[in-house]
Amino acid sequence: xxxFVTGGAGFIGSNFLNLLVPRHPEHRFINVDTLTYAxxxxxxxxxxxRPNYLLERVDIADRSAxxxxxxxxxxxxxxxxxxxxxVDRSIHAPDSFIETNITGTxxxxxxxxxxxxxxxxxxxxxxxxxxxxxxxxxxxFTEQTAYDPSSxxxxxxxxxxxxxxxxxxxxxxxxxxxxxxxxxxxYQFPEKLIPLIILxxxxxxxxxxxxxxxxxxxxxxxxxxCEAIWAVMEKGRLGHTYxxxxxxxxxxxxxxxxICSLVAREQGVAEQTLLxxxxxxxxxxxxxxxxxxxxSKVIAECGWKPKRDFESGIRDTVRWYLQNASWVNDVRxxxxxxxxxxxxxxxxxxxxxxxxxxTP
Length: 360
Ligand code: NAD
Ligand code: DAU
Prior knowledge:
Elements: E1 2-6, H1 11-23, E2 28-32, E3 53-56, H2 63-73, E4 77-80, H3 87-92, H4 95-113, E5 122-128, H5 152-171, E6 175-180, E7 183-184, H6 193-202, E8 207-210, E9 216-218, E10 220-221, H7 222-235, E11 241-244, E12 249-251, H8 252-267, H9 271-275, E13 278-281, H10 296-302, H11 310-323, H12 325-331, H13 334-345
Parallel strand pairs: 1-2, 1-4, 2-3, 4-5, 5-6, 6-11, 7-10, 8-13
Antiparallel strand pairs: 9-12
The structure holds nicotinamide-adenine-dinucleotide and 2'deoxy-thymidine-5'-diphospho-alpha-D-glucose.
């Protein structure tokens, strides 16, 4: 089959292609990606020359370009990763989130719907747990949790989920959705918490923690997410949503401290030297307090379960970033430096102590 993988040069998309292209020579994987700042073709060097892999540089927000690439391949399957994915960027400049995440998804759905009758077998939409908003101290997000997005990013992803579901109900479009918690692992753009803290700690730069670092995220190793998507594609029910997560709830501050300890060990420096770099900075507006996923449906129906525990996953992730200096240098372009300036220069340091908070 021909499988369109949108956003295949980004963090999760490239891990997905690296895992599945060699495993499934019977399918042709066509990476449909416009190559934004978050994309990197170096992520895909191990599969770039495989006969069952191709790249099509297409902006999914461009309706005619999407129509044209669908007409050229008539793909049976679409796995839709392409998105603007960073919450903080959506707060600074939401426009591209609306264009890519909402209009882009709409364009793909329309093109899929226009395929010759019987061609389109599956539209798999990759989404996020952020559509559900925030949890309090207790409880888990289930597939029945009401949508309550907090940021322009999560609102745009929620909109795209609603469109996918509506196309299934209205036009019978064969769709599935996965809503996953926070991923970590190789090839993640270092604007996100884990790679940012690893690289800053390695260079003994300040480690910015929003608010008091008490927000909780449910971390999943990226390959486990990719395996879950494939399991749902193979075994999930059409028209259904599956929540994906690893039951790995961690406070941000604890994640940062774990990274300090691992980087210190790898580099042979005193752990306290890195802990002293922690800076509590003004919080993200609308910051969701806690995410935690009930993944029992995907486990029961699709036979998936995560393979990596956080301890080994984060250790290997730290090593990957420390050992891949050329990848790191490559992505730290002018655009990266400009983003760091935009996001952190405006955030004055709040405190270097955990216990004091308040407005800067
Ligand atoms: P990413 O930002 O690393 O990569 C996004 C990719 O999409 C890039 O290759 C980029 O070039 C491409 N893209 C962006 N705009 C495009 C456009 N207009 N046309 C074509 N391609 C475009 O994102 P990621 O972290 O890999 O996330 C992938 C998907 O998974 C997203 O839909 C995101 O919402 C979802 N998700 C991410 C996480 C996470 O923790 N990162 C968790 C759950 C769900
Ligand atoms: O839950 C899934 C989502 O996870 C995905 O849909 C998003 O695409 C992905 O970016 C991620 O969103 P988060 O906002 O949770 O990830 P981020 O790495 O930006 O932040 C993780 C937590 O760390 C969050 O509580 C904010 C905090 N943080 C982040 C940065 C960048 C800091 O404390 N300091 C920082 O410098």
